[in-house]
Amino acid sequence: MTSQPAAISRKEILRGVLAVAIIIVGITHFTHPDQYARIVPPQLPAPVALVYISGVFEILFGIGLTIPFLSVAAAWGLITLFIAVFPANINQAINSIPIDGIPHHPLLYWFRLPFQAVLIAWAWWYTRDPETQAGAAQVAAKLESEVNR
């Protein structure tokens, strides 16, 4: 008799959704940097460079979120990134700055602001109980065997 693998939990499915979404958004920072540069607050220098930097970190943290050994650090990185880019979201709402591909409605920009808290909470979920995440036991066992050699 063979044992069946455990069902993938909703938390793990949502981890994949968040990771893929963040990676896609990160990629769009390279395909459409001018769109994101528009909403960078004017007080900050080199808006396009900041867009590229944030895109790199979005991609890295999205990938890291899927790797058990890195997922907690990646989740904290996402939290930091979500906080760091929040001034751009505020700037977009205050100045009603349109972005191609997103419906242009000033109320939409204001309603989007609280969603940043949802993203922060979503990432924070993956900082909790990392030992229970999929693959964590295997990574810990492999590290322990390597250390004990």
Automatic annotation (TrEMBL):
Main location: membrane
Transmembrane regions listed in the UniProt entry: 12-32, 44-62, 69-87, 107-126
Cellular compartment(s): Membrane
Keyword terms, alphabetized: Membrane, Transmembrane, Transmembrane helix
Topology in the lipid bilayer: Multi-pass membrane protein
Pfam families per the UniProt record, alphabetical: DoxX
Name of the featured protein: DoxX family membrane protein
Gene Ontology CC: one annotated term: membrane
Xref: InterPro entries: DoxX
